[in-house]
Amino acid sequence: MERHFDEELKELHKELLKMGVMTQEAIYKSVEALKNRDNAMANGVISLDDKIDQLELMIDERCIDLIARHQPMAGDLRFITTGMKINAELERIADLAVDISQRVLELADKPLLKPLVDIPKLSTIAQSMVRDAIDAFVNKDAELARRVVLSDSEADKLRNLVQEELIDDFMAKDAKSAPRAVPLLLITRHLERICDHATNIAEDIVYMVEGKVVKHHPEELI
Amino acid sequence: MEKLQARNLNLWYYDFQALKDVNVSFEEKKITAIIGPSGCGKSTMLRAFNRMNDLIEGVRTEGKILIDGENILNNGMGLEGLRKKVGMVFQRPNPFPLSIYENIVFGEKIHAEKIKKGRLERIIEDSLKAVFLWDDLKDKLHKPALGLSLEQKQRLCIARLIAVKPDVVLMDEPCSALDPQATARIEELMRELKNNYTIIIVTHNMQQAARVSDETGFMLLGELIEFGRTEDIFTRPKDRRTEDYITGRYG
């Protein structure tokens, strides 16, 4: 039986999807700005953030309104509460894209320390984790969500590799390299945090779809 | 600990099978809610637990209903003793057209062979205190019970019931005639009573089931579809039919 409530849930779904698309755009542009040293693009990411913040507030309000008026249960309740969490995670991801863009601007007048190899790799992982997490949400695909959670360790490894390289090969040898190395270190950290947020989203999706809590319960992932 | 169990419980009204192979256990001193659409058999099951269905023509029951391990469907089971042990609160409060006092001591007068002096007064005070009516009614004990408000009448019916110290309290939509404030107060009372009694409540009000119960069972077309911890039933039911019912998709 189709309920009026279903229409309202579809609206929430659409808004979350829009939030996901805007967040993905922010990450993509911040990474492109880094690769191409494109300050205009970096500034574009920073100005996009206001719109994402507005949408976050709107989605939050809608979720609270749905809970108050419909007192949802079971799958509906899981969808709305997960929606609220995903909303917050996406907003944090967009903030990290802003952070990356700010680092890009800090590096603008400085020559690159070294050719970027592993950071673009990490950014590819981050982007695909966020994309897959959003796809898992759209398709209610708990298996894809599980794969997202499991891929986080790859991101952690890559972050460690980049950090070691920047610290051991540059900063330890030449302290003057710090102004050029630190923004790259921070970008690495921002990208890895994006992966963590994508992981949180994916864990929430497993709960939404199956009602199983995999957060802090790795045994439930298998 | 299990207080009441139904084992392969089947019940027919003439040819119509109202309960189909129901197996369920109710924990002692817990509140269990039974939910399900109209006609699913939940009230029939509740009435089976103190053999109220015996009064209905054409009813045939098979299986076992065990209370403290004893099958109450056995022919040797005395109905009076059973109803003392398993009391029922109905949808509309139904005090007798007697005084408040007489309503409460009614059961005691039936069940007790000899009543010691002062005992009835103690029962009145204890029972009214248990349902939080004592302060309001202690000076009006000989006024007619029918003059009370709907909520007070329902509380009085619960007081009348617990005056005979039952083990199990069955509640059939006990708040459906009450406004939200009165409902909230009866729910508070249920939480208090849980310390001493095993409570089984049938309700159409899903939020009420979610609020007050420890465990919940969902029934459909005479079958117990799903039974479990209330928080699980209302957040992550296993059966699609339970999900459809509690999210309002059933129909």
Describe this structure as you would to a colleague.
The complex is a heterodimer of chains A (222) and B (251). With 222 residues, chain A is mainly alpha-helical. Chain A has helices spanning 4-36, 39-70, 74-107, 118-138, 142-171, 178-210. Chain A has a single domain (4-221), classed as Phosphate transport system protein phou homolog 2, domain 2 (Methane Monooxygenase Hydroxylase, Chain G, domain 1), CATH 1.20.58.220. Chain A is built from six helices and no strands. Chain A starts with a helix and ends in a 12-residue tail after the last helix. Chain B has 251 residues and is of the alpha/beta class. Chain B has one domain: Rossmann fold (3-Layer(aba) Sandwich). Chain B is built from ten helices and ten strands. Chain B has helices at 42-48, 79-85, 100-111, 119-130, 134-137, 150-162, 180-193, 206-212, 230-235, 240-246, and strands spanning 2-13, 16-27, 31-35, 59-67, 70-71, 86-89, 168-172, 198-202, 215-220, 223-229. In chain B, the strands form two sheets. In chain B, strands 6-7-8-3-9-10 form a six-stranded mixed sheet, with helices on both faces. Chain A binds chain B through residues 1, 3, 5, 71-78, 210-212, and chain B through 206-207, 210, 234-237, 242-243, 246-251.
Q: What's the quick description here?
A:
Chain A is mostly helical and 222 residues long. Chain A has helices at residues 4-36, 39-70, 74-107, 118-138, 142-171, 178-210.
Task: Give the SSE map.
The complex is a heterodimer of chains A (222) and B (251).
Chain A: H1 4-36, H2 39-70, H3 74-107, H4 118-138, H5 142-171, H6 178-210
Chain B: E1 2-13, E2 16-27, E3 31-35, H1 42-48, E4 59-67, E5 70-71, H2 79-85, E6 86-89, H3 100-111, H4 119-130, H5 134-137, H6 150-162, E7 168-172, H7 180-193, E8 198-202, H8 206-212, E9 215-220, E10 223-229, H9 230-235, H10 240-246
Parallel strand pairs in B: 3-8, 3-9, 6-7, 7-8
Antiparallel strand pairs in B: 1-2, 1-4, 4-5, 9-10
